[in-house]
C-alpha cells in the first residue's frame, strides 16, 4: 500500500482525535481536530454507528497513522509480536515504539514522526557510532542515538530539544547539550499516551 501523501490533518479528523502528525501545530488553536472535530468529507458529520468490523478497522488505521507505517510493515510487526513470549498486543506496540523514527521523535530530536523519518533518511543520525538512514530500524536497550557531528551545529536540533524538554519517556534518556539519547529500558504499555485498544488489532489479524 502506497504511503499517504494528502493533508495529514484529515487523518486526525477521520480518527476523531489528535495523532500529532503536524508537530507544534497540533498544540495550537490551528489544529484541525480542535476546529472541526468530525470526519472529513461531505457526510463527515452524519456517520452511523460502526459495526465490530468497522471498530477494528478504525483502531488498526489509527495506530498505523500514528506511527506512520505501511500496511506491509504493520503486518510484519504483528507477526513478530505474535511469535514473542508475552501478550501479543503489548509486544506489538513495543515494537512500534522502538522504531528509530519514533525514538528520535520521543527524544525531542524531531517535531513529528514524519520529520524524524525525513531526518533519518537524510543521514543525520548515528546509532552506536554508525550512521543509520533507515527509519524502521529497531532500537534495543542500551543503544545510543546521536546527531552526526556535521549536523550537530545546526540550530534546528537545539531548538527542537529545548521545546520538548520534560516530555521524554522514562525508558529513554536525553543529553540535550550533546544531542545524544540512550535507550535505558524497554518501553512499557503505560508509556504509550495514545488511547489504543490493541486487543481489537489482535482480533483483526487473528481472523
Task: Provide structural commentary.
This protein is of the alpha+beta class. The protein folds into three domains: 1-43, Ribosomal protein S4/S9, N-terminal domain (Ribosomal Protein S4 Delta 41, Chain A, domain 1), CATH 1.10.1050; 52-98 and 193-207, Ribosomal protein S4/S9, N-terminal domain (Ribosomal Protein S4 Delta 41, Chain A, domain 1, Orthogonal Bundle); 99-183, Roll (Structural Genomics Hypothetical 15.5 Kd Protein In mrcA-pckA Intergenic Region, Chain A). It has nine helices and five strands; from the N terminus they run αααααααβββαββα. It has helices at 8-15, 32-35, 52-67, 71-83, 88-97, 100-107, 113-121, 155-164, 198-205, and strands spanning 125-127, 130-131, 144-147, 172-175, 180-183. The chain has a five-stranded antiparallel β-sheet with strand order 2-1-3-5-4, with helices on one face. The radius of gyration is 18 Å and the shape is elongated.
Q: How much strand?
A: 5-15%
What spatial form do the alpha-carbon principal axes imply? elongated
Looking at the overall shape, the CATH architecture of the largest domain is Roll
Biggest sheet overview: 5 strands, antiparallel
- Tell me the CATH superfamily of the largest domain: RNA-binding S4 domain
What is the radius of gyration? 18 Å
Count of helix runs: 9
Percent helix: 40-55%
Short description:
Helix content is 42%, strand content 8%. The protein has 207 residues and is of the alpha+beta class.
Amino acid at each position: 500500500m502506497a504511503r499517504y501523501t494528502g493533508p495529514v490533518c484529515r487523518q486526525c479528523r477521520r480518527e476523531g482525535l489528535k495523532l500529532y502528525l503536524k508537530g507544534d501545530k497540533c498544540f495550537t488553536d490551528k489544529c484541525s481536530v480542535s476546529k472541526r472535530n468530525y470526519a472529513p468529507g461531505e457526510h463527515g458529520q452524519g456517520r452511523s454507528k460502526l459495526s465490530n468490523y468497522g471498530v477494528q478497522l478504525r483502531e488498526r488505521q489509527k495506530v498505523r497513522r500514528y506511527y506512520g507505517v505501511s500496511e506491509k510493515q504493520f503486518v510484519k510487526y504483528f507477526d513478530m509480536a505474535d511469535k514473542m513470549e508475552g501478550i501479543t498486543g503489548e509486544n506489538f506496540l513495543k515494537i512500534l515504539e522502538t522504531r528509530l523514527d519514533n525514538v528520535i521523535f520521543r527524544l525531542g530530536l524531531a517535531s513529528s514522526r514524519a520529520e524524524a523519518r525525513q531526518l533519518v533518511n537524510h543521514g543525520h543520525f548515528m546509532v552506536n557510532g554508525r550512521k543509520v538512514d533507515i527509519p524502521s530500524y529497531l532500537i534495543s536497550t542500551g543503544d545510543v542515538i546521536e546527531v552526526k557531528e556535521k549536523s550537530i551545529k545546526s540550530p534546528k536540533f537545539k531548538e527542537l530539544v529545548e521545546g520538548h524538554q520534560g516530555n521524554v519517556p522514562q525508558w529513554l534518556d536525553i543529553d540535550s547539550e550533546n544531542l545524544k539519547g540512550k535507550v535505558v529500558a524497554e518501553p512499557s504499555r503505560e508509556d504509550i499516551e495514545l488511547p489504543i485498544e490493541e486487543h481489537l488489532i489482535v482480533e483483526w489479524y487473528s481472523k
